[in-house]
Task: structure prediction
Amino acid sequence: MDVKIGVVGFGLRGHLALEAHRPGAGSAVVAVCDLSERSREEALAAFPDAAVTASLEEFLALDLDAVMVLTPDDQHAAVAIPALEAGFAVFCEKPLAISIEDCDRILEAAHRTGSRLYVGHNMRHMPVIALMRSLIQEGRIGEVKAIWCRHFVGNGGDFYFKDWHADRSKSVGLLLQKGAHDIDVIHWLAGGYSSRVQAIGSLSVYGDIDDRRDRSGERMRDWFSLDNWPPTAAEGLNPVIDVEDISQVNMVLDNGALASYQQCHFTPDYWRNYTVIGTEGRIENFGDESGAEVKLWNRRHQGAAPADETFVVPEAVGGHGGADGLLITEFVRFVRDGGATETSPVAARNAVAAGVVATESLRGDGRTLPVPTLVPELIDYFDQGQPARSAASR
Result:
């Protein structure tokens, strides 16, 4: 029998709901809740047999097994917590929330109710990241001591400066909203969490553009185009822009590894570059899609040298290099059976915590600040795979 999934928020991230609709193959979207009339109309077109409503109360009273929270980030806690309290397994899109306090409230609700919590950090399923992690786990570069990530966000103007992402009251900032993905990957590859962070950044380009307009009711696909170039010629930006368009953070992890993450939202190219250095070598990706290469150096060289080994990122079909499909497959299995998953609520919380504190450093005087830790009881519970009831036993 298919897992019955309800979706809250069928806008920008609605593609994940479409991915989850696999009637007859394990899961089906049977309900959608959204305040937007446009979103409700699109949901009815995509899922003709689903119950569609604007009322969260009506939605949570339906016969569901799981709820996918695909709302804007500042609304995650307001939906995820009552869904957990209603007894549903919950998929919460990343970042888990926009404050450490809300992250902890979500984890506490899952622990208190026994309802299963899954966070959609799809990059853990990206073939390029999976390849790099497998090389690390095989010991090919020894013990990880440093990770550097450069994120060239070539679509930054269209993706983040024409809607709510540009408003810190709704996103905190892009070092959290966008950076949480990469901070989580850095933590995962290094095998530790940030204990201290220090950051700098600025609003270097988009803040000087006066062409603004309210895009309420629009979707990113309504305005996105690769022809929107150069960044200084951007039009129709969000009325409020008070987040940084370039930033970088240094991290000291609790296992002694050091890391740095840089993002720029006005570059011409769009990809991530990770360099991971261990006690016996280093790896680095060149491109992050199918067919890209991960290079490994594990011998001493004079100057720049060809890699000692090169690995090709495997082919995959679907969003984010096939990661979206793998993410949904794991979530549905988790709803049915529980157990360990590649993603982790604790790791999701710690990525947010690092991003929040880094933003505090960036907007302060750039000093190094401690990252608060999660209480041990919650760490133990989630690290054990959330030994809670399945959807079938509700």
